Amino acid sequence: MKFWMGYRFLTGNITRALFPIISVVVATSALVMTISLGDAAKNIIDSDLSAIGGNRILIGGGTLSKRDLQIVERLPFVEFGVFPEERGLVENTLFRGYSKKALRAMNLPILRDGEVVLDKTQFLNRKVGEKVQLATDIGKRNFIVRDLYQEESPFETMKIGDRVILSDETFERIFGRRTYNTLVVSFPQDEDVVEYIPVILRELNRSRFGYDQVRILETPDVYRKVERIRGFVSKSLFILSFIALTVGGIGVLNLIAASVRERGSYIGILRTMGMDRRTLKGIFLMEAIMVVVLGGAFGVGVGIFSSYLVGVILKIPPYFNIFKMGGALVLTMGVGLLFGIYPVKKIGDIEIVEALKI
């Protein structure tokens, strides 16, 4: 009976019910768009910001070698290490040497002697597994293309030359360089670099006996700024989601409140006929549930379509997480019902005589 009467109340005045339904549709679709496009934009921003400033320190001031790199990379809190000077430009080819740990961190395969990874934006016609001839310091050499990658760091893309990645062993054999002046040490994003700096310096300087001591040249100030920007983006997305939920909730609140005002005489008659307050509240609450479910279902469909449409305009492909989409729907419905509970509870405070006068 509650369902049937709630349905009759809802369809009895389509014009009045249209506004709250549209409000829930707008709220749900806005929330879906905020989540899908927000996640997509956040992934792009995170990727770009990470390329600009990682959680890294720069060490130098002395002569550094592969042994120093191995010492640093053995430390459990270090992600990887890399020599910025481990690069060589021959004709128009820029060779770059990386350690095994650095290659793994970049999601690239471990390279053996004679294997390379090419930047696919520069070597457009190259395929994995084929041979490629490149000019080196010891003449032209044939290499096997082990993988292709796309450079994301803007600092690397501004450098002259077609980018080729080698293992650090192959780089040393070809270019004959075994000592460097600086070393970049990279840490996971959630690590506090400051507390590890003394440990790294102690390990590197232990065998130097005060001679040719290395020191910190640069701390991750850029990374801290990047983290602040990320925090700002997350907070902005949260505020937009909150606004969308509030819009939908207010629509349901207006619907139930208007329904109570317009049907005061009905309430009085039903109470006179013996209907208890609990059943009466259930009827109005059922009406609110219908509005929320109907608006939420349509809102998800509108939100997905709008996300693709806006994504094409902004050139940001939406990212849909099924768990987040389900959570958005449940959350919108929950907030809508929460707003609808207040006017429903007010029904119990209305006396029969007062209801008949409305």
Task: Give a summary of the structure in a few sentences.
This protein has 358 residues and is of the alpha+beta class.
What does this protein look like?
- The protein is built from 12 helices and 10 strands.
- By secondary structure, it is an alpha+beta fold.
- The chain has 2 domains: 2-48 and 226-357, no CATH class; 55-220, no CATH class.
- It is elongated, with a radius of gyration of 32 Å.
- The two termini are 24 Å apart.
Please give a handful of descriptors for the protein shown.
358 residues, four-stranded antiparallel sheet, single chain, six-stranded mixed sheet, 12 helices, alpha+beta
Q: What is the arithmetic mean of pLDDT?
A: 76
Q: Provide a count of the helices.
A: 12
Shape: elongated
* Widest β-sheet, arrangement of strands: 3-4-8-5-7-6
Give the helices and strands, then pairings:
Elements: H1 2-12, H2 14-52, E1 56-65, H3 66-74, E2 80-82, E3 87-90, E4 93-98, H4 100-105, E5 115-119, E6 131-136, E7 139-149, H5 154-157, E8 162-167, H6 168-175, E9 179-186, H7 197-205, E10 215-218, H8 221-262, H9 264-272, H10 277-314, H11 322-347, H12 352-357
Parallel strand pairs: 4-8, 5-7
Antiparallel strand pairs: 1-9, 1-10, 2-9, 3-4, 5-8, 6-7
Helix pairs in contact: 1-10, 2-8, 2-10, 2-11, 8-10, 8-11, 10-11
